[in-house]
Specification:
alpha/beta, TIM Barrel, globular
């Protein structure tokens, strides 16, 4: 089942350890692909210049690893491409353009982006229009650099702009950029009542990336086996969707901070065992 799909590790839950620990653990598990969460203390672009980017790339390359995606922090940091405040919106657009440049220097083919937030009590169409305008600018910039954008929906607790695969497809069609792809986060999709099959049906070949994690009804990003999602069924849905990208383990939460290797190993072993079934 994994002939054309690559298990991908992510450093999110390693935030209490140096990034080298994460990279070494990835090698221990014989994983070849990583998704880089771009945030302090590992790699916030505002604190890192050319020499630091080069050092990180060397650390990745010497371990025989490759990047599937660069995912700059954008939900905790003051970043909002749909913001009403023009200074915040312009700074957020520039932030993603800078991240696209960094992604190219790291030999990452893609940058993950979310639609922004705006205010909950604003008119949806006004917030949506600002988001689309920003996404269009960023997508045109990414296309010029040769980098893909993976657009991730956010659940209602975060944003009202894009929550479902249908809404995501509409945005992709409206912007109509060859650089812009949709993606699924299985935890967020579960909250909205959707599965990988729904995203496969609605996005088709515009499904560019998958955050493949277990969850419960809260939408928590859990290691596989700690939640309730039907892993075997989801793997079959990936196959049916003719998806050929990375399946990335975006494990999040303080419960995993003390020993992040355990949930990563647990998830990888479950994915591998189910792929042989």
């Amino acid at each position: 089942m994994f002939d054309d799909v690559e298990i991908c590790a992510m450093n999110f839950h390693y935030s209490r350890y140096p990034i080298e620990v994460f990279l070494d653990d990835v090698v221990r598990l014989d994983i070849k692909t990583i998704e880089l969460w771009g945030a302090a203390p590992h790699f916030y672009i505002g604190d890192n210049g050319f020499s630091e980017i080069k050092a990180l790339k060397t650390a990745i390359d010497k371990r025989g690893l490759q990047l599937a995606c660069f995912t700059p922090e954008q939900c905790v940091y003051p970043i909002d491409i749909a913001a009403r405040d023009l200074r915040l919106r312009d700074r957020s657009i520039q932030y993603f353009m800078d991240c696209i440049n960094v992604s190219a220097q790291l030999d990452s083919p893609a940058v993950l982006i979310t639609p922004g937030f705006g205010f909950m009590n604003e008119d949806l169409q006004e917030v949506r229009a600002r988001s689309l305008d920003a996404l269009d600018k960023i997508a045109r910039y990414a296309q010029g650099i040769g980098i893909k954008l993976y657009l991730e929906p956010l659940p209602a607790a975060y944003s009202k702009i894009i929550q479902t695969s249908q809404e995501l497809r509409i945005i992709l069609d409206e912007i109509d950029s060859p650089a812009l792809y949709g993606m699924i986060d299985t935890a967020c999709a579960h909250v909205t009542g959707e599965t990988i099959a729904d995203y496969g049906n609605n996005l088709g070949d515009r499904l560019g990336h998958i955050h493949m994690i277990d969850t419960d009804n809260s939408g928590a990003h859990l290691a596989w086996g700690d939640g309730k999602l039907p892993l075997a069924d989801y793997l079959n849905q990936i196959k049916q969707a003719s998806y050929h990208g990375a399946i990335s383990l975006e494990i999040i939460g303080p419960r995993y901070h003390q020993d992040p290797f355990i949930p990563l190993r647990q998830s990888v072993e479950m994915l591998r065992s189910h792929s042989k079934a």
